[in-house]
Each structure stands twice: as C-alpha cells, then as structure tokens.
Amino acid sequence: MDLKRVLDIVEEEVVDGDEEELASPDAKRRRTLLNSSSMQEAIGAQYMQKHLPKLEPFLRRVVQEEVHNVLIRHIDSAHRLPLQLKTSSKRYKLQFQGNLPQTLFTGNRVEAENKQPLRIVLTDAVNNQLITSGPLSSMKVELLVLDGDFNADERLEHTEKEFSESIVFEREGKRPLLSGEVVIVLEKGVGSVRDISFTDNSSWIRSRKFRLGARMSRASSIEERVQEAVSNPFLVKDHRGEVYKKHHPPALADDVWRLEKIGKDGVFHKKLADFGIHTVQDFLRNLVMDQYGLRGLLGSGMSNKMWESTVEHARECVLDDKLYSYCSGHGIILLFNCIHEIIGVVVGSNCFSVNALTATQKALVVKLQQDAYKFPGRIVEFKVQSQSADQSPTAPAPPGPASAQMPGIPPQGGEANPQPQDHGLLPLHDAALGLEDVLHQHHHRHHHSEPWITNGFDATRDPFDMLQFSGPSQPCGLLLSSTGARL
C-alpha cells in the first residue's frame, strides 16, 4: 500500500479524535494551565500512546513491500552483472615493461629504472600472453601524461572515459608536456620508447606527480577496444635541480648531502662538515663507531623519522673490498672493512673470522674494538704479503707467560723454524690468496668447530687481564700499510 495514503488515513483519524478530546471542559482547563510547549509535548505523547497500535501494522506492511521490491531489483541486477562484465571486458591491453624512476628531470630522456630502455607491450588481457601477430601487433600507440592520482588503487581495469579525464595538458603559454617521439609503432607487439622528455615539472598539479600513459592511436582504424597502459607515479623536477639529486644507491665517495634529508649547505650538512664528516663513507664510519654520538650531533632538528630515512639510504651504499687493520699492542690485530665494521682477527700468522670465535674471545675482541674506535686514526689500510720460502722467519718473541699469546697459538720459542701445528687454522703464509678469501674459506671450514684451544693460554684467568698479553708484542708479520711499511 502507498505510504502516503496510509499516513493520510491515520492523520484523519487522529485529527477527529483530537478535536473531540480538546472540546471537553477538562481539556479547556488544562489548556489554560499549560504553555504552548508543554501542550505540544503532552499532545505528542498522548498521540503516540493512543494511535501507535493503529499505525504499526500499516508501517510493517509498507516496510515489507519496500524491502521486497529492493531485493527483487538486487537479485535481478546480480543476474545481469556477469553478462555486463563479459560484454564490457577488454580482450587486449597495453603494458609498460619496467618501472620509471621515482624522480625524472625536465629535458632528460625518459628511461626505466637502472637506465634500461622503456618498452610497451601488447598482451592478452586474460592470460597475459604477448600478441605477436595480427593487425594489433603492429598498431600505432600514442604516449600521454596522466595525473599521478589516477588509478591510485592500482585497479586492473579502467574505462576509456576515466583514462581520458585523467590526461594532463600543458600549462597556458607552455610547450606540450612531452616532446620527442610521442607516437610509436609496435613491432610484433613490442614498442620502444626511444626519445621523449618532459618540458615542465609536476609541482603545479595537486598530486605533484605524473604518470605516463599509452593508448591506441586515435588515427587507427582498428575497432577493437584495447586497455590503456599506465605507468607508476613519479616526480618531475626542473633539470637545474639535477645537480643536487640524491643517488640511489649512494657511493662511498659521494658528498654526505647526497643522503636523504641532508640538504646541500643546509643545517645538517654544516654540522657534519664541522665534525669532519664530508662523504657517505665518513657518515657510515661514524654510524658504526658511535651511532648515538652521530645522532646527537644532528640534534633535535632532525626527527627520528628523518634520521631513519637518512640511515636507511646510507646503508644502501655498495662497499668496496678494501680492508683495514688496527694493531692492538697485545699481538692481536683487528681487521675491519671499509666502514670500520670488524670482520676478523689476526694473531701471529693466523686469521680468524669473528663468527669462529668463542663467547669469551668475542668479548675480548669487543673491548679491543672499542679501544680502536677511540683512535680511528690508527685504523689503516693494509695489503697482504705472501711470505716466500727463502724469506727469513720473523724472530720469535721470548718464551714465557709474558709473551703475547692467544688460545690455539703455540708458544713461540725453541726451534728456529718450528713446524706449524694443526690447530684447525689457515696460516696466511701457506695460501697465495687475499685475506678476504682466507677469511671466507676459514669461516666455511670451521664454523662448526672451536678454532682456539687452551694450549699456551691460561683459560682460568680473566680474559680481560691484559697481563697475559703483555710483554713484547707479536710482530704483525704479513700486514703492510697502504704505504708498504710493515705494521
């Protein structure tokens, strides 16, 4: 039943009943005592109490009818939906091969990440197979600029209207946003974007980002609907800012302002420079040796989020293969990589990877490492020198408990040419390999065994008691500084 008609019927009944009731003497007396607002409340409450039982059945019937009609329409549309999807779905689609960099610069050729050529391919929308034959495989494709917010939810499909409405055109008085070869011809379903560049930055649109789009040329006579290609979003900056761009990944020799959140000649750059931190390598070394000191140097002006971004970017740096050493003065040499992370230990003519040490030995190495970090100038680059058979062996240190000893290294003395004992270690002079290879091989040969034994070492003594490493230091032997001088 029509809801309006129901309400009209109920209203007529209510009005008739109200008129009779209000005409009584009692009602007149109450009306003189009540103000207008109190009267309205009283009438409303009386109306609801008296007529709700009459109104409820009508409302139930109307609601049931309306719900029934909605369900019928929903079920009918659900049955039609698969057919609509089938008729509107696209059989072919264009795709970009590879992602564009996060930042491009005006005037520079558009290329994919890692300087790879950007390609467009035509594929089957169902199985993603490349289309290599037929008229579509050699069709013309035009390149366009899209708003960076288009397809933000990364939907697999979009309509032609949605694509067209997201096209970004040049600003008034400016050249077209894309210059160069903006129309390409597919060859066996593949086309290369060879020579296009942006003429304007992306800072003037709301999203501050562009996307690159590709669609079948309007001049094409092919009637088949082909899904347009949409790239990832990216920034376009003025080419004058390219000299200040960040490197991904950064190089060790890069200026420290190449790191994220550190601007050239900015506050953080000046603070770091005043502390002698000029390169990414300097930053990483200080991060390894004194992370909290470095964080404190940059101060509260750099938020924790900014700090994490800077550190994460710095750690993308590709390290070189140079090694550095610190001679502790106790016959123990610590080995570091190029950013002063400890990677091994040399005692006499034997080397040990950190992973091969026992907990006690690691604790000792950590203390020596902290000593080394207090004097970073003494951490120097070194080279490995093989000892030939005709070279005179290094003069042994005087025997006795005062000699520098480490577990697993026999006391030096006695024979002028002692035969090397088998301690499960790889002597440097027996291998014509770089120290990196020695450490690598040693780690794989001995990572399940304990390389140091207590022969020649009083294991009952405090491992931090330097007296057991006192006396004449063991010669560093095979290690040479970058100048060639023996360490």
UniProtKB/TrEMBL annotation:
One of its GO terms (biological process) is regulation of salicylic acid biosynthetic process. The lineage of its organism: Eukaryota, Viridiplantae, Streptophyta, Embryophyta, Tracheophyta. InterPro entries: Calmod_bind_C, Calmod_bind_M, Calmodulin_bind_N, CBP60. It comes from the Eukaryota. Belongs to the plant ACBP60 protein family. Its main location: nucleus. It is found in: Nucleus. Residues 252-317 form the Calmodulin binding protein central domain. Residues 386-426 are annotated as: Disordered. One of its GO terms (molecular function) is DNA-binding transcription factor activity. This is Calmodulin-binding protein. Keywords: Activator, DNA-binding, Nucleus, Transcription, Transcription regulation. It holds the Pfam family Calmod_bind_M. One of its GO terms (cellular component) is nucleus. Residues 322-381 form the Calmodulin binding protein C-terminal domain. Residues 92-239 form the Calmodulin binding protein-like N-terminal domain.
